[in-house]
């Protein structure tokens, strides 16, 4: 998952640098008491992730540095210093933007302004949720609010807007701009206009008020999606009470308990957790209505039209066609999948064999488990974290000429001793950027796997390149006294996925940080990460690193075969469920006022686009947190997977280590960030124009492929 703070104005290769490499673990292989023997020889990267971090001598004795090497952030109070510095710099740049003669320099100043605010806002956005020290989290939260206030001022600065408007209305000047500069100027103008700055004073004030209200409603909605629902304990059979937390005479239901083997537990959890909440229903109605009002105020027929500007899909009409055609192609397969699930339910619970929505996750999993022996514990010994990191290192080196080196962080540079710092180095271009790996479980750490942009890359005024910095946050197990951190197949896939985002950030060598790396349309941003999942499932790739941490034995090919084949079991029904979610999202953000209540729309859409019956007195949409962050763009996961599938099959399936294809991938897709139209990047990679049928066909064909075709022999 992607996490990039994209406020307004926020939203060639690096030079070689001396690397302080962590060499103390070079060649190390042991270190775990109780292991029979360890025949695996880990590289420095592998050792750094397989062995528990030890404080370096300089960390114990040296002066304390700031978070991410930012001097001001050696204490929580430093956030105030950093934000004040950024705000002063922003005020100076606003003056420059309004006074400088119109031309490419105008866009450069706007980007400097974006960069000054992003350097604090992006960093604070991460720290406020991930730092273990409450004082740092509170200081970061305050910095986010103060930068947000500055952004609101910029959104209403007519003089600033007019300087950009004059540039873009001068045809001769626009023609003199290079494509990337023109694209960035247009993006800044779009950011301005969706805030209503081009309107008269009264309408502009309404737009500002709507934006504020939408932010408040979004926060309230997100918060409520996680709240438990309660039910009187006396209403539940005593035998299932232990599955739920208790609050006095009530049982608390905090989630859907989708993996429970007890049908009744899943049914109760579904009906209680999804029981309608009047306040949350009103909050969603208000959120959707205000989004619609704002979109119409700034010149769009619906919020979806506004949200899809500049995406691969371009319009809600195309998204709807895509989803409808995909649903049509999936229809027969989905029916067969549901029949299989129904058969499994009848086998395990013949007294109640009607298939219901709470059954889908459990019984599809039961079918996979019965057909394929894919117990995660069988795979974990082959997927030590160090081995997986070395696998990524080998893959990137062969595909892109890139190596990962472990650096010892300075005292105070990281927020937890478990965080590892990686330097990303190209064989000829030198240092490209840094990845901070916050991989291990800890108390109060968010459970979602995420990629955060901390600092975007850009060409600085002195001609040097500002190196990008990102954080990858996962929730992996720690090493033990007898074993290194061992990953399940799902954890391995997530690691590769998030590293795909990181490589996008490292290789997006744009002139402007406003479009650096993953700062691009949502339906394109997920392509590099999903593509990495295909590499993680290819035996030729996995075979390079998946070795038993004790014996050194390679992961047998048939185990990879079973794992990959299992993913296709009930995959049509899983994809159909995503079509339902994406369609619901489009309807909610389409024409307003809505013809029916959000719950009635849910019922109707579920019956048309899913296939399992709506359960009376439930309101699943009130738990659909993606309506906030992915409003009108939930389809992006499906479209990104379609693009990734096409790129894999046409460019990498024959040879996953092809340097020629790796270079084309970097040149056509990764290098531009959001500075080029996404469809042009996709077409440049695939070297052909694409239709909706191509996207649909790519997704459906993934359900068909047999093992020997999909995973070609080494």
TrEMBL record:
- InterPro entries the record matches: M3A_MIP, MetalloPept_cat_dom_sf, Neurolysin/TOP_dom2, Pept_M3A_M3B, Pept_M3A_M3B_dom
Q: Name one GO cellular component term.
A: mitochondrial matrix
Q: Where is the Peptidase M3A/M3B catalytic domain?
A: 257-698
Q: Which residues form the signal peptide?
A: none
One MF term in GO for this entry?
metalloendopeptidase activity
- Top class in the EC scheme: hydrolase
Pfam families, from UniProt?
Peptidase_M3
Q: Name one GO biological process term.
A: peptide metabolic process
SUPFAM superfamilies on file: Metalloproteases ('zincins'), catalytic domain
Protein localization: Mitochondrion matrix
Keywords associated with the record: Acetylation, Calcium, Cobalt, Hydrolase, Iron, Magnesium, Manganese, Metal-binding, Metalloprotease, Mitochondrion, Protease, Transit peptide, Zinc
Q: Which cofactor does it need?
A: Zn(2+)
EC number(s) on record? 3.4.24.59
**Which function does this protein serve?**
Cleaves proteins, imported into the mitochondrion, to their mature size.
Task: Name the chain's protein.
Answer: Mitochondrial intermediate peptidase
This chain is encoded by the gene named: MIPEP
């Amino acid at each position: 998952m992607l996490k990039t703070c994209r406020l307004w104005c926020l939203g060639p290769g690096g030079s070689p640098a001396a690397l302080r490499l962590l060499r103390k673990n070079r060649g190390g292989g042991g270190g775990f008491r109780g292991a029979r023997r360890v025949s695996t020889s880990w590289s420095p990267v592998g050792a750094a992730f397989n062995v528990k971090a030890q404080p370096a001598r300089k960390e114990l004795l040296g002066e304390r540095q700031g978070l991410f090497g930012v001097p001001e952030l050696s204490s929580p109070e430093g956030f105030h210093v950093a934000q004040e510095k950024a705000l002063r710099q922003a005020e100076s740049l606003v003056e420059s933007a309004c006074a400088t003669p119109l031309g490419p320099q105008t866009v450069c100043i706007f980007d400097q302004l974006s960069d000054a605010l992003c350097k604090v806002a992006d960093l604070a956005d991460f720290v406020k949720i991930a730092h273990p020290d409450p004082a740092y989290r509170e200081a970061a939260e305050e910095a986010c609010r103060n930068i947000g206030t500055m952004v609101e001022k910029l959104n209403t600065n007519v003089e600033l807007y007019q300087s950009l408007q004059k540039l873009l209305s001068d045809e001769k000047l626009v023609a003199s701009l290079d494509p990337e500069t023109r694209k960035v100027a247009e993006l800044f103008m779009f950011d301005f206009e969706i805030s209503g700055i081009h309107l008269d004073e009264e309408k502009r004030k309404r737009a500002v008020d709507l934006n504020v209200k939408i932010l408040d409603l979004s926060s309230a909605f997100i918060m409520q999606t996680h709240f438990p629902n309660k039910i009187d304990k006396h209403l539940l059979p005593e035998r299932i009470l232990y599955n739920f937390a208790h609050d006095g005479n009530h049982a608390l239901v905090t989630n859907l308990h989708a993996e429970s083997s007890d049908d009744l537990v899943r049914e109760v959890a579904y009906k209680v957790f999804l029981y309608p909440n009047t306040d949350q229903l009103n909050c969603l109605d208000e959120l959707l209505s205000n989004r619609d009002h704002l979109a119409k105020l700034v010149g769009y027929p619906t919020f979806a039209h506004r949200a899809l500007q500049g995406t691969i899909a371009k319009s809600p009409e195309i998204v709807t066609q895509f989803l409808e055609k995909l649903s049509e192609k999936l229809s027969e397969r989905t029916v067969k999948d549901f029949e299989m699930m129904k058969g499994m339910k009848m086998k395990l619970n013949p007294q109640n064999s009607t298939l219901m929505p709470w059954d889908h996750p459990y019984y599809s999993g039961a079918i996979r488990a019965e057909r394929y022996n894919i117990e995660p514990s069988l795979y974990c010994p082959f997927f030590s974290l160090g081995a997986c990191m070395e696998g990524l290192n080998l893959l990137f080196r062969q595909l892109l000429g890139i190596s990962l080196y472990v650096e010892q962080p300075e005292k105070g540079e990281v927020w937890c001793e478990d965080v590892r710092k990686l330097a990303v180095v190209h064989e000829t271009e030198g240092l490209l950027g840094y990845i901070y790996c916050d991989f291990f479980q800890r108390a109060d750490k968010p459970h979602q796997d995420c990629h955060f942009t901390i600092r975007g890359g850009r060409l600085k005024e002195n001609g040097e390149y500002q190196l990008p910095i990102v954080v990858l946050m996962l929730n992996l197990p720690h090493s033990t006294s007898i074993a290194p951190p061992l990953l399940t197949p799902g954890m391995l896939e997530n690691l590769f996925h998030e590293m795909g985002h990181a490589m996008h950030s490292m290789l997006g060598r744009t002139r402007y940080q406003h479009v650096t790396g993953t700062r691009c349309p949502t339906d394109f941003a997920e392509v590099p990460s999903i593509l990495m999942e295909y590499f993680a499932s290819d035996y030729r790739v996995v075979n390079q690193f998946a070795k038993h941490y004790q014996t050194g034995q390679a992961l047998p090919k048939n185990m990879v075969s079973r794992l990959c084949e299992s993913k296709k079991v009930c995959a049509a029904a899983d994809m159909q469920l995503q079509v339902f979610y994406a369609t619901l999202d489009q309807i909610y953000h389409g024409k307003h006022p809505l013809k029916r209540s959000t719950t009635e729309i849910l019922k109707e859409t579920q019956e048309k686009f899913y296939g399992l019956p709506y359960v009376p007195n439930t309101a699943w949409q009130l738990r659909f947190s993606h309506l906030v962050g992915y409003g009108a763009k939930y389809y992006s996961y499906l479209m990104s997977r379609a693009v990734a599938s096409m790129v894999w099959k046409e460019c990498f399936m024959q040879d996953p280590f092809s340097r020629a294809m790796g270079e084309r991938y970097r040149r056509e897709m990764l290098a531009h960030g959001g500075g080029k139209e996404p469809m042009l990047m996709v077409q440049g990679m695939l070297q052909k124009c694409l239709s909706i049928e191509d996207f649909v066909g790519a997704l459906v064909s993934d359900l068909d492929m047999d093992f020997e075709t999909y995973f070609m022999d080494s």
